[in-house]
Structure formats: C-alpha cells, structure tokens
Thiamine-phosphate synthase (Acidovorax kalamii), 302 residues
Amino acid sequence: MHDTPALAHAILSHHAATFAGFAPEPVPAPTSQEPVYLAALQACSQLGFIAHDAECLARAWQARALRTGAAQPEVWPDAPEDFGLQPLPRAHQFAPCPERLGLYAVLPDATWVGRMARAGVPTVQLRFKSDDAAAIEREVRAAVQAVQGTGALLFINDHWRVAIDVGAYGIHLGQEDLDALKADELQALRNSGLRLGVSTHGYAEMVRADAVGPSYIAMGAVFPTTLKKMATAPQGVGRLGVYARLMRHYPQVAIGGIGAEQFAQVLATGVGSIAVVRALVNAADPESAAAQLMQHMAPTPV
C-alpha cells in the first residue's frame, strides 16, 4: 500500500524545479481512490497543471504503476501506452510530413507566404482571417501558387475544404476546429491526402489529438505572446521538454513567443521545428531575419 501524502511529497520534491514558476491549481475531484493516482493528482495540481492535465497525468502515473509494479516518483511519466496513445503503427493516421519541419513561418496572407517561401523558409502557414468565402478561396489559391517552385511546404490554417480543392500540402487546425469535425468530415480530410497539424496546449489536448493521428503536433504557447488571447498560461521550456518526450513518435512544432535568443533552449527539448510570427512579419528586413533564424535552427558544429 502506498502512502498517498508521502508519495505526493516525493513527486513534488523530485520535479518542482522542472516546473518552477507555475502557481498551484485547485485539485480536481478525483475519479479514482487508487493511492498512486491520488498522490499524482495532488502533486500535479501543486505543480501548476490545470484540472484536465492533472487528471491525465494522474491516470498515466497509475497506469505505469500497474504496468511496472512501482510508483517511481522520481521518474516523470512519458510512455505513450500509459497515456492511452495509439500503438504503432497507428490505426488512425494522416499522411506523414518530414520529421523536422525546420523554421515554420505563420503568415497573414499569400503575399507574405510567397515572400518567405522565396527567402528559403522550409515550412509556411497561411493564417488568413476572414468571413468572406470568396476572399478566403482567392487567398488560399494564391498561397498555393506562391510556393510553387520554392520547395516550401504550405499548411493552411482552418480552411480545410478550400485547401483540399486547391491542392495545398496540408492544413493546421486548433483543438476547437478539430473537435467540430464530424466523423465523415474527418474521414474526407484523411482521404484527401493532406497533412494535418494540430495545436495543443497540454497533456489532455495531446491525447485528444493523438486519437486522429495528425501529421505533426504543435505545442505551446511556450512563452508569453500577444498575438492572440491564450486559454492557458505559457507552458515554458520545462513542460515543452516533457511533452516532447511523450510525443516523440510525432514531428513536433514549438510555438508561442519564441525569439532567436530562445531557439537553443527550445531545440534542446528535441522538437524539430519552431514556429514564428512576429519575428518575421514585424522585422525591419524579413528576409534577413528569416536567414538568421534558419541559422539558429541549424545544428551546432561539434
């Protein structure tokens, strides 16, 4: 029998430094009375994980204890099977994309897409916001044309039906957009051959994303960002590192407030791509900024 308070304290003592800076969260109502689960639920809430993520972690800790016969408070859980992720090969999976997508530019219109693609940025995303269906189709079609001959991989944010029609490389969806897809729409999207990237902001969302087998997982926001209102606090490099270990069988994109000076610590977590927005579109010389950021993406010579 495990001593729940002692085990919770052991988890905290071993991992507090990794997740320093997060305020404790309320402990959610437990869904099990297993001691390892209860200890992990308390500890993860104290470490600042929101209710859905604390629950997800507690269940993973319990699953590992059952699988290995030990609570292992000193080892943060990162085995995909303990989180209920799909076994390999996945039953549900989108078309693959490169393991390392490199510098990933998120851009407001087709003109920017073409400009950064010609500057050599390997992965670009059109994030065009409009309620005008005709304008959306024109912009998506123009973005597809803009990357032709450049080698850049083009993902379209949200507008998946148009992306299929005009032959984009892939699409990117947020959690709410993914959840809104009906089963037949999800299957049509998978059958189209487009690659799918999904935004995640913690453990519970990564588990939900894994259920559809996307082509890559985006994780963030890593640092504070003013680009849009975030539902969760910045995740930080410590959390990014444990997320990357869990999702190691996926290509991974780190996003959110990442500047050139932070590239090294972000890449040290194992992610293969860093997404930027303001670092390019707000730069005095975007082409020069892109070149410099791509240099930061390159492995350091030994």
